[in-house]
Amino acid sequence: MIRLAIAEDHQCLIDGIKLFLEFEDELKIVGTANNGLDLLEIVKNKNPNVVLTDIRMPKLNGIEATQRIKNKYSEIKVIAFSMFDQTDAVEQMICAGIDGYLLKNSPLTEVIKAINIVHQGEQYFDAHIDTNLL
User: Fold this and answer.
1) CA 28, CA 37: separation in Å to the nearest integer?
2) What is the mean pLDDT of the chain?
3) In angstroms, rounded to a whole number, what is the distance separating the alpha carbons of residues 106 and 13?
4) Direct distance between the N- and C-terminal alpha carbons of the chain, in angstroms, rounded to an integer
5) Cβ distance 9 to 52 under 8 Å?
6) What is d(CA 63, CA 89) in angstroms, rounded to the nearest whole number?
7) How far apart are CA 19 and CA 60, in angstroms?
8) Which three-class secondary structure state does DSSP give residue 52?
9) Taking the complete model, does pTM exceed 0.85, yes or no?
10) What is the pLDDT of residues 77-98, one digit of tens each?
11) Which residues fall within 8 angstroms of residue 86, CB to CB, at 6 or more apart?
12) Predicted pLDDT at 133
């Protein structure tokens, strides 16, 4: 069972992802947050296997939240979920320790694919990210 935490400052996006994923038998959403500080509390108290996090959030951004998660809970897989495909944003998240990077304009089926791939220990990068530049 994949235990997923989602951090995104747009609640409607969280709600849409939750609705889509509720029929996935091997996946359980253990918590959602609208900022990085609340995400850290979820990670501490709910022990997710995978975190799907936005980069730009209030109180604590996804870069810093990812660094803190990876420093304390290195076994947790983190996927950046962002509308930013610029090389510097991707590089900052890679330096923070992400296991995957998914663009928000991806279909929801791609979200499930990314979650499964990183949960299995592999990296996942959106097809629209030019990893050759990294």
Assistant:
1) 21
2) 93
3) 12
4) 32
5) no
6) 9
7) 26
8) strand
9) yes
10) 999 998 877 788 888 989 999 9
11) none
12) 55
Nearest to 99 by CA among 127, 120, 72: 120
Edge to edge, the sheet with strand 100-103 lists 27-33, 2-7, 50-53, 77-82, 100-103, 124-125
Strands (E), 8-128: 27-33, 50-53, 77-82, 100-103, 124-125
Q: Tokens in use for 21?
A: 């994923």
What is the reported pLDDT for 72?
A: 97
Over the Cα atoms of the chain, what is R_g?
Answer: 13
pLDDT, tens digit (0-9, with 9 covering 90-100), for 33-46: 999 999 999 999 99
Residues 6+ apart with CB under 8 A from 52: 4, 5, 6, 7, 8, 17, 79, 81, 102, 111, 115
> CA neighbours within 13 Å on the CB side: how many for 36?
18
Q: Are 50 and 118 in contact (CB under 8 A)?
A: yes
Q: What are the distances in angstroms from CA 92 to CA 32, 44, 66?
A: 23, 23, 10
